Amino acid sequence: MAGRAATSSAKWAREFLLRRNPLGAIRNSSSAAPGAASSTPKVPHFSKKGRILTGATIGLAIAGGAYVSTADEATFCGWLFSATKVVNPLFALLDAEFAHKLAVTAAARGWVPREKRPDPQILGLEVWGRKFSNPIGLAAGFDKNAEATEGLLGLGFGFVEVGSVTPVPQEGNPKPRIFRLREDGAIINRCGFNSEGIVVVAKRLGAQHGKRMLAETSGTSSSPGDEVKPGGKSGPGILGVNLGKNKTSEDAAADYVQGVHNLSQYADYLVINVSSPNTAGLRMLQGRKQLKDLVKKVQAARDEMQWGDDGPPPLLVKIAPDLSRGELEDIAAVALALHLDGLIISNTTVSRPDPVSNNPVATETGGLSGKPLFPLSTNMLREMYTLTRGKIPLIGCGGVSSGEDAYKKIRAGATLVQLYTGFAYGGPALIPKIKEELVSCLERDGFKSIQEAIGADHR
């Protein structure tokens, strides 16, 4: 094992130093044909900050190769995750969007730790007939174009959601469009569904799906008689696909239907995103009549396709945290009447709750995510659990940065939990930390499983 790790570290360092397309995530969309992957851009000259980040990362890789010879796999895995605490703060020295692209590239190329330690059984659960090894997921918006699903799932997330994916490629809103509020643990973004489009994403997901099928048929993934492990169509871990509409589209339903037809065969679940604040008119689709008509059309498109024994992927709707009680009641009524498979609560907020309101960056237009969103989104989660009488699985999203935060979401009614901004600030080391803290919370209150804790505040 030591030889393999050392060889891997040396190969990684050599590849990084030679700069073999280290920024493969960045696309030259202006010269690419619609619906096609664009050519690899020229590698930009690294700034002083970039060289510091590169040197620190290479040093960790080489040190890891040396360290592994004296440690077992679990110990070494823990060391790798802890080591990212050194590198992650260096990302703060970079432009926010560039740092994001660099992080996606690192995950896509396998330059991130891979979780080898099994999740504690207390964290496992089954939702929609799919087995999750743990309830902690990565929200949509990080891997918009499905470039790094394998690497992200390998970090130890129970599930990863890619997108939002639009039918036609679009650049999104003008830059700069991502703003850090570091002292508040928050981010404001107004990206506006920047997407490489359905065709490119479908090709990537299709390739990943084919790779897994090949591995299964060749017997490299499992052997006869092996216990069925948690996972989905993308391999270990569950993959969600978040669907969006194009900015200039006049028929929102047609955009979502197109997403279903092209991407649902690769998804363990689908999400209709009608709540981003950065696409004009999108949130109007959350109205009772509009949402009912939209969900009916998308469900029909999904159900008319041919499905195997597993059936079609579950369909969820992601809603905003800025809704009134009456609007929440309307959404709950639609969800129950149409047997919607789930709701994600919530997207980013256009409000600026304290203490963010005192931050000069708060004047920037866009959706606020991170710690300040936690109370608002969790209260809405609690209300929706009551309105749906606990009959619909809810995914709690907004301000999660610790195991205690995740536990509070679960007690409020969340079956699963997502994070994004917390991961952006905390890096890979945050994932095992959250899971460890969540186990402690469950055991502290006498729960033997995640399932027992869901909605505990309502009992």
UniProtKB/TrEMBL annotation:
<keyword id="KW-0472">Membrane</keyword>
<keyword id="KW-0285">Flavoprotein</keyword>
<feature type="region of interest" description="Disordered">
    <location>
        <begin position="212"/>
        <end position="239"/>
    </location>
</feature>
<dbReference type="InterPro" id="IPR050074">
    <property type="entry name" value="DHO_dehydrogenase"/>
</dbReference>
<dbReference type="Pfam" id="PF01180">
    <property type="entry name" value="DHO_dh"/>
</dbReference>
<dbReference type="InterPro" id="IPR001295">
    <property type="entry name" value="Dihydroorotate_DH_CS"/>
</dbReference>
<keyword id="KW-0560">Oxidoreductase</keyword>
<protein>
    <recommendedName>
        <fullName>Dihydroorotate dehydrogenase (quinone), mitochondrial</fullName>
        <ecNumber>1.3.5.2</ecNumber>
    </recommendedName>
</protein>
<comment type="pathway">
    <text>Pyrimidine metabolism; UMP biosynthesis via de novo pathway; orotate from (S)-dihydroorotate (quinone route): step 1/1.</text>
</comment>
<dbReference type="InterPro" id="IPR005720">
    <property type="entry name" value="Dihydroorotate_DH_cat"/>
</dbReference>
<comment type="similarity">
    <text>Belongs to the dihydroorotate dehydrogenase family. Type 2 subfamily.</text>
</comment>
<dbReference type="InterPro" id="IPR005719">
    <property type="entry name" value="Dihydroorotate_DH_2"/>
</dbReference>
<keyword id="KW-0999">Mitochondrion inner membrane</keyword>
<keyword id="KW-0496">Mitochondrion</keyword>
<feature type="domain" description="Dihydroorotate dehydrogenase catalytic">
    <location>
        <begin position="124"/>
        <end position="441"/>
    </location>
</feature>
<keyword id="KW-0288">FMN</keyword>
<dbReference type="InterPro" id="IPR013785">
    <property type="entry name" value="Aldolase_TIM"/>
</dbReference>
